[in-house]
Amino acid sequence: CSRARVSQVRAVTRFVLISALLAAGCGASDEESPTPPPSVAPAALFPTTVGDRWRERVGGAARTRGVTATTPEGLAVLFGQGDTQPAFYRASEQEVGLARPDGSVIEPLLRAPIRAGAGWDYEGARSARCRGEILRLDAPHVGRRCVSVRRRCVHPAGTLVGPETTRVTEEAYCPGVGRVRARTTLSPPIEGATPGDVEVVAWRVAG
Known about the structure:
Number of strands: 12
Low-confidence stretches: 2-36
Largest sheet: 12 strands, antiparallel
Shape: globular
Helix content: 10-25%
Strand order of the largest sheet: 6-5-4-3-2-1-12-11-10-9-8-7
């Protein structure tokens, strides 16, 4: 009787151990099923409070750029060292865009939904054919998970200089920080136009 009970206990113990091992083996690793980044609205990626400012490195030189005012049309006015005129931006839950002073959007920088693979088509300046696309939601920048974006515009011949020109801009936007990185390339290259890389090295943003 005693031997039977011991055998039974051992069998149950083996069954429990094997079940635990199988359960552990069936679980997906963090790499296989990473936790998706939380969804975010475009406005959360582009702070627009007066006083928000960023220290940027542009092509090796440093400058400070910030939100200096807002307009009655609800636009944020950004101005920085070396700028000859301010830039106007509209930021909402649906879109962030470079705008004219009257509020009309020239170039949509971000558009909802902020989801990897999501894209939007638009007509750029001087009849350029453009498309924006969300590449990643977890690009690592400034110690945060950020949204990586690419915008590609094809400018018809003669609208910039000479032949048809393709402009590709890749940027990263971080929640609560704003744009932290930008790179623009032109193909074919335009003599005298060498867009420098932009990288944020410090910031002060409300909230």
